Amino acid sequence: MRRIVFCGFRGTGKTEVGSLVAQQLGLPFVDTDQLVEEKTGRSIPSIFHEDGEERFRIHEREVIADLPGSDIVVGTGGGAIIDPVNVEHLRAGSVCVLLTADIATIERRLMQKPRPPLTGLPLIEEIAELVDRRRQFYYAAADFCFDTSGTSPEAAAQVVLSLLKNGATTPAQRNAAIVFFRAGRIPDMALATLEKTLTGQDRDPQARILGVAGYPAAHSRSPGLFNALFSRYRLNYHYTWFESPDLHRIMQVARETDAKGLSVTIPFKQEVMDELDEIDEHAARRIGAVNTVVFACGTSVGYNTDWLGVRKPLVPMKGATAVLLGAGGVASAAAFALTDLEMKVTILNRTPERAEELAGRLGCGWAEWDAFDRIRPDLVVNATPLGMLPDTRSPLREEQLVKEMMVFDLVYTPPVTPLIEMAKKKGCRTITGMEMFVQQAREQFYLFFGIDVPESVIQELVK
Ligand code: NAP
Predict the structure, then answer these.
(1) 8 Å CB contact between 272 and 322
(2) Residue whose CA is closest, atom 20 of ligand 1?
(3) What letter would DSSP give residue 429?
(4) For residue 413, which atom of ligand 1 is closest to its CA?
(5) Which residues make beta-bridge pairs with 99?
(6) Known catalytic residue at 39
(7) Per-residue pLDDT tens for 217-273?
(8) Angle at CA 250, nearest 5°, toward 261 and 237?
(9) Which of 2, 222, 247, 440 could cysteine-pair with 305, CB 3.0–4.6 Å?
(10) Euclidean distance between CA atoms 135 and 105, whole angstroms
(11) Which among 14, 260, 269, 312 is annotated as catalytic?
(12) Residue 316 to residue 312: CA distance in whole angstroms
């Protein structure tokens, strides 16, 4: 039987509910805090007090890495899932259940069994701050969620057992979803897998789906990449295409199939913001676009990972003078990344008004397209679709490039675009759109599952 892992903040009932679930299933229950105490021969408060939290986390990581892979129910410490290595171990071949509770309930429960403080704050404030800080990690680690506030451990255990046995969707919801998926352009093999996952006779109720939301979405390389990652990390998920001109319907199907998340592509990156419960304030809100949606505990949260995909390969160019070509969705993420790296950015766009608007919003300069030659930037970023197959045009002429320039083309089909080819010929350093794709997908996988995939693994899989 698949290993069952309980995670969540302390005081949410992991040990009580986990033990009851284990009892019902006839499996042993282990608690990672208890394993740390057994391993060290010391109590958790004493490890925190004498050696500090960092030392405790090392012990915790060791016991998690040594857990049996099946036929066991595991309760984890409240902060265990912040460490991506722990998440990778805990998630492999497991089903992860996140227990939550409201702040007042957690406080009441914690007052009954004192635990070492993790901050210098009063208890209720500490709980509120830590729950908020860790929420993204809990959501990423969770396959199923249940709020234990106002519920007895016995009743909570029954709900969890039912989720494990039946999943979180009804047959009517799954049948309606299949009708939706059949209307999109999904390859036959992928549709067959989806039908088996959602409505097949021997359906696995613990299997979950995710997908790319777009119209069209068929060009996306995400399904191939994500499904390969699921095999590698032994995650019980299937990634597919949510292709429809109707974003509202896509979101409805995603919710009704209990989808874990969506990668969002053209033309929905802006529109999707109106469909979400929350939007990441740091980046997505300021960029004005969402390319990642995480569903957990009845909530949908939008993020943008495109900007991280642009930022990562440019870190060594901090402070450079940059020209950004284009003022659409991806250009907005690129402008955010370049300004985050303190670059002096000028946006050039076919429609100058859009360049002006984006520049004003993100604190960049803008100019008419033919101003390029006056600027002579250190870095050129192409965020237009020029050069994307079947288009073979370049946004710049060869004589506009000089060998000191770095040229980053965000277009990744083909991997070597006419602009990149031209830049190489001129002796410029180049970065391809594939690098952005790899980085943004890596960040997206981290938001969905809390696992930090090495860059080399993704690079190998997209070759
Ligand atoms: P978008 O929102 O439609 O924006 C396109 C931008 O390109 C607009 O500024 C548009 O100018 C300009 N443009 C379009 N056709 C042009 C032409 N013929 N000449 C000059 N400018 C032109 O598209 P997007 O979502 O930002 O995507 C842009 C490209 O980014 C895509 O084609 C894709 O190749 C690439 N991309 C790469 C990744 C990756 O991971 N590497 C991810 C997403 C997208 P106007 O304002 O005048 O219309």
Answers:
(1) no
(2) 350
(3) E
(4) 34
(5) 146
(6) no
(7) 987 889 999 999 999 999 999 999 999 999 999 999 999 999 999 999 989 999 999
(8) 35
(9) 440
(10) 17
(11) 269
(12) 9
CB atoms within 10 A of CB 143: 26
DSSP string, 196-211: HHHH-TT--TT-EEEE
Q: What pTM was computed for the model?
A: 0.94
Angle made by CA atoms 30, 32, 36, in degrees to the nearest 5: 120
The pLDDT tens digits for 4-15 are 999 999 999 999
Is the CB of 458 inside a 6 Å radius of any atom of ligand 1?
no
Pairing of strands 292-296, 261-264: antiparallel
- Band of residue 112 on the pLDDT scale cut at 50, 70, 90: confident
Average pLDDT value for residue range 60-88: 97
In the block, tokens 């040594």 appear at 66
* Structure token digits, residue 345: 């950015």
Q: Tell me the torsion sign for CA atoms 170, 171, 172, 177.
A: positive
Beta strands in 113-207 (DSSP E): 144-147
* Secondary structure letter of residue 366 according to DSSP: E
Ligand 1 atom at shortest distance from the alpha carbon of 384:
7
Structural contact between residues 407 and 314, judged by C-beta atoms closer than 8 angstroms: no
Q: Is 132 exposed, middle or buried (0-12, 13-18, 19+ CB in 10 A)?
A: exposed
- Other beta carbons within 10 angstroms of residue 110's beta carbon come to 17
Q: Does residue 436 sit in helix, strand or coil?
A: helix
- Average pLDDT on 37-51 reads 94
How far is it, in rounded angstroms, from Cα 123 to Cα 287? Answer: 36
Burial class (CB in 10 A: 0-12, 13-18, 19+), 321: middle
33, 39 Cβ separation under 8 angstroms = no
